[in-house]
């Protein structure tokens, strides 16, 4: 039942958008002020489940239903926000607050959940994951993350791995452009391997482009220019939040290059882990990222803590705030990076 708290962000955001004014910033304050404060007070939980509990959690469909519920929640939040911005003459500061709040929903309950669903094996779950990526203009993430990031993480070939002493803003440029270009490169290779034409129904990148454009055109048609701007900029907020998480997840960590030129296999040491309870819940255990990369097919409800994994001193929400201030981030994190990885 604890994962119901993952819906707290969209609930707070929608309440704030409904009341308007400075309340429209509620989600921002909730996610990046209140939760970090609470995480500094609450104990860290490093416990893992025994084999019987793991089996029970895997058989419990409630955990899967919780993920799928994010689809109507995310799109409901989008429609409500579009309704508000087109029906009322809102001041600029409120529109900014609404955009940020909606963007936080798209990041936490959209892309983050899409990431989990993208690792699932059923077509239905994968499709739901793709649908959740559309509002953040990041459908290409589905291809690059699964076929690129997990293969090249913590190596120079991965645009989603932040280098030692690289600041967040430089990383945003690297990863946003690099991930998109890499997705096209991967798709081109997949087409070549399977002898597909560019217009093939299986050329995901082609159809993703059509779908993304159709999404924005539809919003413009029904909600006008203001609605279009809200959709564009809230989506940007959403994918920048994702990339901020990517930044803190692998910052400064490197896989050893072997004599053969290949890199060592991904293991528990190549992702930053956090056991801070609230961040774990609202991000569906994404913060146990070391285990996710170690065994990427594991469902979120059974991800484990590993003693070998580098541990973040703060939860993911707090770490994201720190990353916005590079001198603070470097002061906290650089000394924690293993010497052999610098």
UniProtKB/TrEMBL annotation:
| Subcellular location as annotated | Cell inner membrane
Q: What is its main location?
A: membrane
MF (Gene Ontology): metal ion binding; monooxygenase activity
Looking at the record, the residues that make up the Fatty acid desaturase domain are 99-316
Where are the membrane-spanning stretches?
12-42, 62-83, 90-111, 205-223, 228-248, 314-332
**Can the keyword Repeat be found in this entry's annotation?**
no
Which GO annotations describe the biological process of this protein?
lipid metabolic process
Q: Pull one GO CC term from this UniProt entry.
A: plasma membrane
Q: Specify the protein's topology with respect to the membrane.
A: Multi-pass membrane protein
Which range is the signal sequence, renumbered to this chain?
A: none
Q: Does the keyword Oxidoreductase apply?
A: yes
Q: Sorted alphabetically, which keywords does the UniProt record give?
A: Cell inner membrane, Cell membrane, Iron, Membrane, Metal-binding, Monooxygenase, Oxidoreductase, Transmembrane, Transmembrane helix
Which InterPro entries does this UniProt record tie to the protein?
Answer: AlkB/XylM, FA_desaturase_dom
The protein's superkingdom reads Bacteria
Q: Which family does it belong to?
A: Belongs to the fatty acid desaturase type 1 family. AlkB subfamily.
Protein known as: Alkane 1-monooxygenase
Q: Which organism is it from?
A: Flavobacterium frigoris
């Amino acid at each position: 039942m604890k994962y119901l708290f993952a819906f707290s962000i969209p609930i707070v955001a929608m309440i704030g958008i409904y009341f308007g004014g400075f309340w429209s910033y509620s989600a921002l304050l909730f996610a990046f002020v209140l939760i970090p404060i609470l995480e500094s007070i609450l104990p860290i939980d490093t416990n893992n489940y025994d084999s019987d509990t793991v089996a029970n959690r895997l058989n419990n469909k409630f955990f899967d239903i919780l993920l799928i519920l994010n689809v109507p929640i995310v799109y409901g939040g989008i429609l409500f926000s579009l309704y508000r911005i087109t029906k009322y003459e809102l001041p600029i500061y409120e529109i900014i607050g609404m955009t940020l709040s909606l963007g936080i929903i798209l990041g936490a309950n959209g892309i983050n959940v899409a990431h989990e669903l993208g690792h699932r094996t059923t077509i239905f779950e994968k499709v739901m994951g793709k649908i959740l990526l559309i509002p953040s203009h990041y459908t290409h993430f589905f291809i690059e993350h699964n076929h690129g990031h997990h293969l090249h993480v913590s190596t120079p070939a991965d645009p989603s791995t932040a280098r030692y002493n690289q600041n967040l803003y430089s990383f945003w440029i690297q990863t946003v452009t690099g991930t998109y270009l890499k997705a096209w490169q991967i798709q081109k290779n997949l087409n070549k391997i399977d002898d597909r034409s560019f217009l093939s129904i299986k050329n995901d990148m082609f159809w993703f482009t059509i779908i993304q454009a159709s999404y924005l055109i539809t919003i413009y048609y029904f909600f006008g220019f203001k609605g279009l701007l809200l959709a564009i900029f809230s989506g940007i907020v959403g994918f920048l939040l994702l990339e901020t998480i990517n930044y803190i997840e692998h910052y400064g960590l490197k896989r050893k290059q072997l004599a053969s030129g290949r890199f060592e296999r991904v293991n528990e040491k190549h992702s930053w882990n956090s056991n801070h309870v609230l961040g774990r819940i609202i991000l569906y255990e994404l913060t146990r990222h070391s285990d996710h990369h170690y065994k990427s097919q594991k469902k979120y409800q059974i991800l484990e803590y590993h003693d070998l994994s580098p541990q973040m001193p703060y939860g993911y929400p707090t770490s994201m705030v720190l990353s916005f201030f590079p001198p603070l981030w470097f002061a906290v994190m650089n000394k924690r990076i293993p010497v052999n990885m610098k």
